[in-house]
Design a protein that fits this description.
transmembrane; 13 helices; Rossmann fold; 2 domains; about 15% strand; alpha/beta; 9 strands; Putative esterase; nine-stranded mixed β-sheet
């Protein structure tokens, strides 16, 4: 793996600001306090019930009825405590703001509405848009979430407006396009890195890589040859041109992903260096997994998307690649390390670094800032 010196060091103020959004929703102290409160409340309700019974002899029906408050509290409180414990492990909701954004994205907002415009002048804006695909691509209706940085002026004329590089974000499986903004807290991360002058302002685009037909919930960004969705074509031929047509972009793009989305970032980025100038892959797989048979009809087609098979053969390019390891097995680490060496041999700067946090959104949030900064610096997009 890369020596520690290759890993960018963030300014202390940036580290502090990034850590400030890791709130009580992901703390085990919260789980412990919730469990203690639920237990105390249940015991209190049971004690009150016994006290009432000591003053009379209600029938069996009333006795059963009086147990309901304690039973209901135990069930509801237990469910809440379990939910908090699961969130402490996977880190899907790092803060109340992330929970709010997820609720807005999945339960209330339609395309064209704002997901967030947070915290005043130093914050970017996130809005959902509908990027329709041709019927032949068999893509389901979805919302693409787009972050524009502080100071972005959509009303300025072409000659006067600033232009921005684009960060394309791929979620994991299962997942949705909202994941990077809720679980990944990416708007906050970008706000901090931009405000602290660590990276240049960017436009960020989170698309939905779910499909229809075979392999619908785990497409790995592939074009199906088994009757399903054409996800790669949708991304490259529809989403990317849409963003360039509707936003002030420079034409420079970085593709980033977590888990299955990291495989997507590597596979798409390495096979399309003309579209993606840099790659951030957090906890990546090197092959399409089950999608090799659900999305692809033949073994030969699957081999064309096996990164370990083709990494050494990609055309030379100055295309920085940052790979974050999150609790992979020894065999997986060896395979990814081999790929990193092969990519370096093609002229690509490669960062390979192990982060803590496990294969969870907690781990992904911890790895994302420095891996993004590494790629941005290699591309001259960092200050």
């Amino acid at each position: 793996m890369s020596p520690v010196s290759d890993l960018p060091t963030l300014p202390p103020t940036a580290r502090l600001a990034l850590g400030a959004d890791e709130g009580w929703l992901t703390s085990w102290w919260t789980v412990a306090v919730a469990a203690a409160l639920v237990l105390a409340l249940v015991l209190l309700l049971l004690a009150l019930g016994r006290r009432r019974r000591s003053h009379g002899s209600p029938g069996p029906g009333r006795r059963h009825h009086r147990r309901w408050p304690a039973a209901t509290t135990a069930v509801a409180g237990g469910a809440l405590t379990l939910a908090l414990a699961v969130n402490a492990v996977v880190g899907y909701f790092p803060s109340l703001g992330a929970l709010r954004d997820w609720s807005a994205a999945n339960l209330t907002l339609d395309a064209g509405q704002h997901l967030a415009a947070v915290d005043g002048d130093g914050a970017g804006t996130v809005a959902g848009v509908d990027v329709p695909a041709p019927a032949a691509m068999a893509m389901p209706a979805s919302t693409t979430w787009i972050y524009t940085p502080p100071g972005y002026d959509a009303t300025a004329s072409d000659g006067q407006r600033s232009r921005y590089p684009v960060l394309v974000l791929a979620h994991g499986s299962p997942g949705t396009s909202a994941d990077w903004f809720s679980a990944g807290d990416v708007a906050h991360v970008l706000d901090v890195l931009i405000d602290e002058h660590v990276i240049d302002p960017v436009v960020a685009v989170a698309f939905d890589l779910n499909g229809t037909g075979p392999g619908a919930d785990d497409t790995e960004c592939l074009d199906s040859t088994t009757g399903g969705s054409q996800v790669e074509s949708y991304l490259d031929q529809v989403v990317v041109p849409y963003v360039d047509a509707h936003y002030a972009t420079t034409g420079t793009r970085v593709i980033a992903g977590f888990s299955a989305g990291a495989y997507c970032a590597l596979d798409q980025g390495l096979r399309h260096p003309d579209l993606y100038a840099g790659i951030v892959a957090i906890a990546p797989y090197l092959d399409p997994g089950e999608a090799a048979t659900t999305m692809l009809a033949t073994a030969a087609q699957a081999q064309q998307h096996d990164i370990a098979r083709y990494a050494a053969t990609v055309a030379p390019a100055h295309q920085p690649v940052a790979i974050a390891l999150l609790d992979e097995s020894q065999d997986e680490v060896r395979a990814i390390t081999d790929v990193a060496h092969e990519l370096r041999a093609t002229g690509r700067p490669v960062l390979l670094h192990a982060f803590s946090g496990g294969h969870t959104w907690t781990g992904a949030r911890g790895a994302f800032p420095q891996t993004l900064v590494y790629v941005a610096r290699e591309l001259g997009l960092a200050r």
